[in-house]
């Protein structure tokens, strides 16, 4: 058994004791109350999910396994010649909460290569789709196609299903899925935008460098990929993609079913698709308002108001939990500022100018609870700079990263034996009765 799996087995066994004790001895302790506006309004802020993989503080932003983004980047072993960690090291960290040693990372790097081999029927399935399908449809289909070989599904139907070891089969699928998804994403990119010019993975490279290699990118892009996939990996459990994955898997649907569903949620414009919407907004702004002229704050302000007055949202701004600038935005902005060429890029200048103008506009507009930028406001400009300019692909990149968090989470869901998710609904009549006569809690 690999060191990663052994460590995970030990940690799951230790952690289960805590979960079981909470359930048995403190199951009736009330941690939250639910209001009518929460019940109607998308369950904001209701504390009813448990994960130890990441935690999102409204003002501080995300912590992965207790570490902020800079602390995470600092603590993990780096890719050769890079100041960024390998995605493989981060995978070990997300799963176990431990900073892996070099030896442990090397083992993951090796195992990853074995697991990243994508069955050829995935290519057939993706090729069979209309070529103008959205790349997220291709990614979701590619993932779903692998369901037929799910080790968890086989174990479930084997007649020997055993809840205590079920997590090991989820772990197997989850690990296969995270290793294969970048290869599938690169295939889709090459199929759609590079005339089906397919590039085989290079077994000497880590995941980020390999992704750069497969989509025909320069060596520097390896760091973009590493940073991007790590930043997008997890945002605690309540966001649409993570929650969908958790929900679907809670019915003991295997990781392929679960993550394909999660990707379909990620493809919504209020969630992961916002990164493509940001680029779309900027390009239309340049065409309609600039027509070759230099951007100004006045023109940006006008375009933002026009967007709001037409009933649309400002993509890349606002958040259901965050109440300050997303540190994932800041990490990417710092990357731009530290990268010669990128910090003077015209598109980066527009993105920075929007950052100066949009929060005030949103505050004056008076609706959004959070006028600050989220991760999606900044991510496209980096891709654009490096030549990944097909912005309908940006959510696929998000989906590759998000797989890490979703797969780590459902491995732990099974390890801790979380049950099928099934919240209770009520009727409008009932809400009206409670409104007239609030129940005593
Ligand atoms: N532009 C215009 N209006 C906005 C807004 C924005 N960026 N953000 C919120 N609002 C509006 C909402 O549409 C809502 O309007 P109504 O009362 O008319 O329905 C009102 O402000 C209150 O919304 P909220 O409570 O502040 O925000 P929600 O929790 O309802 O929604 C969203 C959070 C992220 C969906 C929202 O801020 C939004 O639509 N942002 C733009 C899209 C975007 O960037 N999405 C990506 C978010 C991060 C992410 O998941 N990445 O994947």
Automatic annotation (TrEMBL):
Domain of life: Bacteria
One of the GO BP terms on file: tricarboxylic acid cycle
Keywords: Acyltransferase, Transferase
The enzyme's E.C. designation: 2.3.3.16
The keyword Transferase belongs to this UniProt entry's keyword annotation: yes
Pfam families in the cross-refs: Citrate_synt (PF00285)
Gene Ontology molecular-function annotations: citrate synthase activity
Record pathway: Carbohydrate metabolism; tricarboxylic acid cycle; isocitrate from oxaloacetate: step 1/2
Top enzyme category: transferase
Family under the similarity heading: Belongs to the citrate synthase family.
Protein name: citrate synthase (unknown stereospecificity)
Organism name: Calditerrivibrio nitroreducens (strain DSM 19672 / NBRC 101217 / Yu37-1)
């Amino acid at each position: 058994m690999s060191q990663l799996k052994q460590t995970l087995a030990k940690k799951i066994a230790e952690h289960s004791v805590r979960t079981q004790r909470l359930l048995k001895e403190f199951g009736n302790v009330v941690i939250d109350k639910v209001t009518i506006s929460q019940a109607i309004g998308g369950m904001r802020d209701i504390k009813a999910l448990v994960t130890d993989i990441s935690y999102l503080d409204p003002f501080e932003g995300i912590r992965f396994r207790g570490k902020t983004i800079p602390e995470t980047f600092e603590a993990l072993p780096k890719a050769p010649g890079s100041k960024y960690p390998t995605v493989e090291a981060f995978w070990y960290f997300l799963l176990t909460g431990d900073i892996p040693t070099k030896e442990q990372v090397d083992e993951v790097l090796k195992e990853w290569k074995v697991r990243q081999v994508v069955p050829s029927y995935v290519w057939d399935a993706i090729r069979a789709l209309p070529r103008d399908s959205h790349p997220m449809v291709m990614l979701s289909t590619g993932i779903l196609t692998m369901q037929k070989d799910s080790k968890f599904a086989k174990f479930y139907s084997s007649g020997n299903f055993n809840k205590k070891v079920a997590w090991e089969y989820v772990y197997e699928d989850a690990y296969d899925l995270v290793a294969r998804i970048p290869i599938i994403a690169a295939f889709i990119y090459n199929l759609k935008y590079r005339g089906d010019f397919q590039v085989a993975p290079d077994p000497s490279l880590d995941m980020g460098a390999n992704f750069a290699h497969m989509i025909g990118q320069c060596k520097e892009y390896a760091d973009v990929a590493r940073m991007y996939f790590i930043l997008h990996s997890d945002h605690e459990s309540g966001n649409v993609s993570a929650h969908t994955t958790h929900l679907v898997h809670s019915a003991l649907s295997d990781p392929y079913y679960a993550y394909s569903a999660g990707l379909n949620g990620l493809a919504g414009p209020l969630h992961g698709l916002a990164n493509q919407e940001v680029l779309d907004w900027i390009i239309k702004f340049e065409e309609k308002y600039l027509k070759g002229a230099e951007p100004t704050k006045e023109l940006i302000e006008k375009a933002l108001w026009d967007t709001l007055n037409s009933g649309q949202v400002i993509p890349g701004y606002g958040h259901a939990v965050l109440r300050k600038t997303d540190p994932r935005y800041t990490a990417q902005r710092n990357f731009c500022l530290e990268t010669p060429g990128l910090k003077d890029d015209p598109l980066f200048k527009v993105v920075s100018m929007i950052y100066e103008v949009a929060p005030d506009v949103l505050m004056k507009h008076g609706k959004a609870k959070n006028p600050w930028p989220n991760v999606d406001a900044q991510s496209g400009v980096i891709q654009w700079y490096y030549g990944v300019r097909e912005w309908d692909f940006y959510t696929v990149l998000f989906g590759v990263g998000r797989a890490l968090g979703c797969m780590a989470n459902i491995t732990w869901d099974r390890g801790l034996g979380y049950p099928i998710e099934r919240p209770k609904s009520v009727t409008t009549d009932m809400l009206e009765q409670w409104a007239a006569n609030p129940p005593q809690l």
